[in-house]
Amino acid sequence: MSFGTVIQDEQQEKNFKGIVLTVGICFVILLLIVRMFHVQIINGETNVRLSKENAMRLKNIFPPRGKIYDRNGKVLARNRPSYSICVLPYKLKNRKQVIGHLCQVKDSLGVNVFDSTALEQTIRRAMYRRFDVTRLKEDVSLDLVSIIEEHSMELPGIIVESESRREYTLGKSAFHVLGYMSEIPEAHFDSLKEKGYLYGDLIGKSGIERQYETTVRGTSGQEYIEVNAYGKSLGPIDNIPRVDPIPGRDIYLSIDAQLQKVADLAFEDTLKGAVIALDPRNGEVLLMMSSPSVDPNIFSMSTLLRSQNWGEIATDPNLPLNNRAISGTYTPGSTFKLISALAGLETDKLRRDSRMPTPCTGAYRIGSRIAHCWKLSGHGSLNLVGAVQQSCNVYFYQVGLRLGDKVINKHAEMLGLGALTGIDLPGERPGWLSGEEAYNKRFAKRKWRWTTGLVLDLAIGQTQVVTPLQLALMTGGLTNCHSLYKPFLVKEERSDDGAVLRQTLPQLKSKLDFKDATVMTLKESLESVTRAGGTGGRAAVPGVPVGAKTGSAENPHGDLTHALFVGAAPVSNPIIAIAVVVENAGHGGSVAAPIAGQILRYFFAETEEGKRVVEELNPGNVKIVEQLQKVVAPMKEKLAAVYPEE
User: From CA 442, how far away is CA 226, in angstroms rounded?
Assistant: First the structure.
């Protein structure tokens, strides 16, 4: 091989190596360009977010929930400060190590604060929402907050969040009106997220809290805060604008907090049922109490305590979560005799002094059936007023036969029975009015048919199904005699600075316009019930004429009848109508009337409106006022002991 050839081969080899090197360098540069394009362009937004969130975090600012007040400005629901220990999953570098450190934390009594199994499960679920804050321990003490903060270096991703919790000042006495709050379930979060809810938000679950959720909730705000490598806040970042939260509206109810307390004390814990009172002049609900009840503050406790109490509540056979005032359905019993009387008077088939062909001897025969009166010895021959006062079944059996089911039910519907009232609370039930058409339709599958004899039961209120609210509405209409108003609870919505944003105006359900003779006879009959010899004497109020009707309704679930009482006062121009239902308790006159009496006497002795009416009815009569004050003194002492002033 010649020397020139060798030189040529070496040159070619050098050229080849240069080309390979150049290609390699170009390839590396190309890879860098592609990688930079991928990082900065394709995944640019994600990487910028991750970069920022290593130095800052978007913090949601929950708005203060609107407070709830009674008609006199007494606070019923407010917010209290609270602290929760939470986890930021994307800041959690070593899950097992952090869980181990948390499981070593003890409270002031030396008891471990966290359970390793529960902690592991919660954090594992939280990893599915890496950038959302998840609570590990709610409503913790300041001592525990201090411990977590002191060990922040050992607990990257574990932070303390301040929040507010609901506090209810009346406890169980107003539970069914106010309701309660609970954290949004995981399964429902995605659907509520579109409405502005955040992970871990609380939401109204019943009562006013649920019905007016959008009103009292407010709108969340946001701010960026600087954080260290462990996720701990170093304060807000000045050059990024903060979005302030919008506080929820305050709500003013029509109920009277003191009357709620009186009703709670009058209704012993061993009793089941409901009491409701309203103003028949406009539909404002003055009190609503259902028993048994629940202290709504239970639902503001930590998860562990809440779960323990919830287990007892959910399995309680007495169903304390049910608001019996609007969803409890009962046969009205003898209180329905007022509707039968009204129907007869308005159709001119009854007058004040009307007597039935067959006097009461304790029973009434129709075909092969013998229908009994509650008084086995009988009432003899009575006029309409006497029949209402003595609650004579035999008299109203014959009224039912004289009028028929359609006429009676027409007047029942006129007064709101057997239909939703439209009150601003969730969970109301309509009830049901029996009659030939409704009965045949309802029991068609059983092949039951309406018979003439069933109108006897209808006329004395043993076939219909109504709610306590409907009974109060009925009584208000019977004594108002001109107008029936839709019942409501929320009077006003106000901003956090007290400005009135919305008011509820009375809404007319129906015009009544009863005949003058009907009005006079009805009011005389109602008032006779609370006078000497009447069945509702235990509901009498000194100096105030009370119109009323007692009832004992058939109860398929117990040995005793349901005890009922309806009333209004003063009967001449009522400012309060009331209904009391006590389940499986006996006679209305002996069980329900005393409960109503305590409430009515307190109303006229202690409320401004009640005292004004007493003075108008008894001008200058100091003895009546003193007598009334003396009567309510024991209740006032009991109230002071059970509900000490804050």
Answer: 66
Do the Cβ atoms of 642 and 261 come closer than 8 Å?
Answer: yes
Rg (CA), the chain: 36
Indicate the residue type of 239: N
Average pLDDT, integer, range 408-423? 96
Euclidean distance between CA atoms 92 and 99, whole angstroms: 10
Number of Cβ atoms within 10 Å of the Cβ of 7: 10
Buried b vs exposed e over 284-295: b needs ≥16 C-beta within 10 Å?
Answer: bbbbbbbbbbbb
Domain residue ranges of the chain, discontinuous segments joined by + = 59-252
CB of 396 closer than 8 Å to CB of 339: no
163 neighbors 135 (Cβ within 8 angstroms)? no
pLDDT in tens, 469-514: 999 999 999 999 889 999 999 999 999 888 999 999 999 999 998 9
Q: What is the pLDDT of residues 122-133, one digit of tens each?
A: 888 888 888 788
Over the stretch 57-80, which tens digit does the pLDDT of each residue have? Answer: 777 778 889 999 999 999 999 999
State the SS3 of 473-492. Answer: HHHHHHHHCCEEECCECEEE
The answer to whether 566 touches 333, Cβ cutoff 8 Å, is no
The H or E element spanning position 313 is helix 303-314
Beta-carbon neighbour count of residue 138 at 10 Å?
A: 22
**68: part of which helix (H) or strand (E)?**
strand 68-69
Nearest-angstrom CA–CA distance, 497 and 504: 19
Query: Contacts for 30-37 with beta carbons within 8 Å, 24 or more apart?
Result: none
- In CATH, 59-252 is 3.90.1310.10: yes
Q: Within 10 A of 28 (CB to CB), how many other CB atoms are there? A: 10
CA gap 451, 371 in Å, rounded: 14
Note the pLDDT tens digit of each residue in 359-371.
999 999 998 899 9
Between 220 and 6, residue with greater pLDDT: 220
pLDDT at 50 over 50: no
Residues 6+ apart with CB under 8 A from 118: none
